[in-house]
Amino acid sequence: MSLRRFEVFSEPLLPAAWLAASLLFAGFGHFGLALGFSFFFFLTGLRVVHNAFHCSLGLSRRSTDIVLWIMSLVMLGSMHAVQFNHLRHHKLNLGQGDVEGRSAEMPAWRALLFGPLFPILLHVTAFRHGNKRLRRVVAAELLLSAVWVFIVFGALRSNVLRYHVGAMLVGQCMTAFFAVWTVHHHCDRTHHLARTLHNRIKNWITFNMFLHIEHHLFPRVPTCHLPELSRRIDGVAPDLRSKIVF
């Protein structure tokens, strides 16, 4: 669970290179290539906020909150609202009231169609069930995102930033499928909590984000240490790793 100093420094910066590359290619008009880099930015951004949700970045509570504020602006929406639902997801785990895990019970096509409603539902749930402080934070982050979008489309007239905002909106609409359905479909609350990946190359390409049964069993373990945890689980309970993501 403990992180080396280099890991504490490098983990929050992991999405930066992908973001810079996506903006660079978009600036030269190569939007197809930019989209690929934006995908990996969103993936690594999810890795950072996911670790922040569980206070597994090796940072103080205040610094972790700052990371969530920054990523809320860059990825759009309120990461504190997503955190609220994600921690409820771990507590309820595909049971009644697990808003984040709702798409896991759907067919793949329906999970894709559910995508645009998913981030809205997460924010509404945070407002409905969160405490007063959380509601203020979520409202402030949403306001910050709204102001940012207004500036991008109203004042700056930057095609690069407009592209980035559009790519992030698409990413938010795809999370119900890629971040939930892929790792939880045909799973249950009692034994196979989630799916995982065995292939090292696939795990390397996806930044270990699909080592999900490992994460559900030990949520505080940082993502960069999940491969080691996966090997240990495989040695004592290999049946838990029978459901594969892809």
In words, what does this structure look like?
Helix content is 67%, strand content 0%. It is built from twelve helices and no strands. It has helices spanning 5-10, 14-27, 31-53, 61-75, 79-92, 108-114, 117-129, 132-156, 159-184, 200-205, 212-217, 226-236. The protein starts with a helix and ends in a 10-residue tail after the last helix. The radius of gyration is 18 Å and the shape is globular. Helix 2 (14-27) packs across helix 9 (159-184) and helix 4 (61-75) runs parallel beside helix 8 (132-156). It has 246 residues and is mainly alpha-helical.
Task: Provide a compact summary of the structure.
The protein has 246 residues and is an all-alpha fold. It is built from 12 helices and no strands.
Number of helices: 12
Number of E-state strands? 0
Helical residues, percent:
55-70%
- Amount of beta strand: under 5%
Query: Shape, please?
Result: globular
Uncertain residue ranges: none
